[in-house]
């Protein structure tokens, strides 16, 4: 049993789902990227009770800790409680993958304290009810990079398989913007997400076919050959066209005019593409490193015009979570 475990987990951004038609027998299929910043960083140590210090989601973290304590108890680990200190956190419910990162970080730390190795991240995800539709958060935590999962099978309670993963070099930068004004709208959508998804019509087969072809030939093949400009441009077109499918629920191709303006500003400044992550309002631009400063400045100006928010530049995380035991 270890006395202290530290976990540093990446965030991630979503590019889209390539098959919501389902006639092949699988649904969704997700494309996305793990990000170096922001990160979730926490430390966990054995305790006589469940305690959480730091961060804005203490109740949720406590519930997750109790869930995993029950799980390790069923496997013979007599861990009475755990003290968790959260040093850095990923903004919640804005398209950066905060919830899966929190669950897997807490689960990994408790399992590691108990010496339950090797970690089965799929088991940890399913225990918390995560990664059953999209496994982008699971594979971002496990290994990072550019990720494509294979969608889920109806009625099966297991994460979609990883079908493609690529290391993204440091010559590719990601400029991320989080405008403040649309956050309330997105939080309302997130509260109603299950209802919204249940009433969405199946994707037109021609759209699912186009999206699947773009993922295979436009994104995966170009990434495999290191043609990052082409891969990024196809990711942007993929994201934009999928916005047409979701337009009835989010009010347009993008969630809001703020996101549309930021995407336009990034591309006009030289980014290969600009994308909305999930429901938004997080926006990200994929750009060659030599243009990152100009894209960053254009994004800052656009965010100021639409009411303020946060903007930063980062790289793709190609490692996944770093877990240290002491």
Automatic annotation (TrEMBL):
- What EC number(s) is this enzyme filed under? 2.4.2.54
- The reply to whether Transferase figures as a keyword in the UniProt entry is yes
Q: Which residues form the GHMP kinase N-terminal domain?
A: 66-131
Query: GHMP kinase C-terminal domain spans which residues?
Result: 220-302
UniProtKB keywords: Glycosyltransferase, Transferase
Recorded superkingdom:
Archaea
> Which reactions is this enzyme annotated as catalysing?
5-phospho-alpha-D-ribose 1-diphosphate + 4-hydroxybenzoate + H(+) = 4-(beta-D-ribofuranosyl)phenol 5'-phosphate + CO2 + diphosphate
Q: Name one Pfam family in it.
A: GHMP_kinases_C
InterPro entries, sorted: GHMP_kinase_C_dom, GHMP_kinase_N_dom, RFAP_synthase, Ribosomal_Su5_D2-typ_SF, Ribsml_uS5_D2-typ_fold_subgr
The pathway noted for it is: Cofactor biosynthesis; 5,6,7,8-tetrahydromethanopterin biosynthesis
As one GO molecular function, the record gives: ATP binding
The signal peptide, as residue positions, is: none
- Family (UniProt): Belongs to the beta-RFA-P synthase family.
Task: Please give the NCBIfam families that the UniProt record associates with this protein.
Answer: beta_RFAP_syn
Described purpose of this protein according to its UniProt entry? Catalyzes the condensation of 4-aminobenzoate (pABA) with 5-phospho-alpha-D-ribose 1-diphosphate (PRPP) to produce beta-ribofuranosylaminobenzene 5'-phosphate (beta-RFA-P).
Per its record, how is this protein called by name?
Beta-ribofuranosylaminobenzene 5'-phosphate synthase
Species annotation: Aeropyrum pernix (strain ATCC 700893 / DSM 11879 / JCM 9820 / NBRC 100138 / K1)
């Amino acid at each position: 049993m270890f006395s202290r475990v530290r976990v540093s987990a990446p965030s991630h951004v979503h590019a889209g789902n390539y098959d919501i038609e389902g006639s092949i027998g699988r649904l969704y299929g997700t494309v996305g990227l793990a990000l170096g910043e922001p990160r979730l960083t926490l430390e966990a140590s054995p305790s006589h009770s469940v305690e959480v210090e730091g961060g804005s989601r203490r109740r949720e973290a406590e519930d997750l800790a109790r869930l995993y304590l029950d799980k390790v108890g069923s496997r013979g680990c007599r861990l009475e409680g755990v003290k968790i200190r959260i040093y850095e956190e990923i903004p919640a419910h804005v398209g950066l993958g905060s919830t899966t990162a929190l669950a897997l970080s807490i689960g990994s730390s408790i399992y590691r304290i108990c010496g339950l190795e090797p970690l089965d991240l799929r088991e940890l995800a399913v225990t918390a009810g995560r990664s059953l539709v999209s496994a982008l958060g699971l594979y971002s935590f496990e290994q990072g990079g550019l990720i494509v999962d294979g969608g889920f099978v109806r009625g099966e309670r297991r994460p979609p398989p990883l079908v493609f993963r690529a290391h993204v070099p440091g010559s590719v930068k990601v400029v991320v913007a989080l405008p403040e004004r649309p956050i309330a709208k997105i939080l309302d959508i997130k509260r109603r997400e299950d209802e919204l998804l249940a009433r969405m019509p199946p994707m037109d087969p021609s759209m699912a076919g186009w999206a699947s072809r773009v993922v295979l030939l436009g994104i995966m093949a170009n990434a495999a050959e290191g043609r990052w400009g082409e891969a990024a441009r196809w990711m942007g077109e993929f994201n934009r066209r999928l916005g047409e499918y979701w337009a009835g629920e989010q009010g347009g191709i993008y969630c809001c005019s703020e996101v549309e303006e930021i995407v336009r500003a990034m591309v006009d400044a030289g980014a290969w593409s600009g994308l909305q992550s999930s429901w938004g309002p997080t926006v990200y631009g994929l750009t060659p490193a030599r243009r990152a400063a100009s894209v960053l400045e254009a994004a800052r100006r656009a965010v100021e015009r639409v009411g303020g928010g946060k903007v930063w530049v980062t790289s793709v995380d190609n490692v996944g979570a770093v877990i240290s035991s002491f």
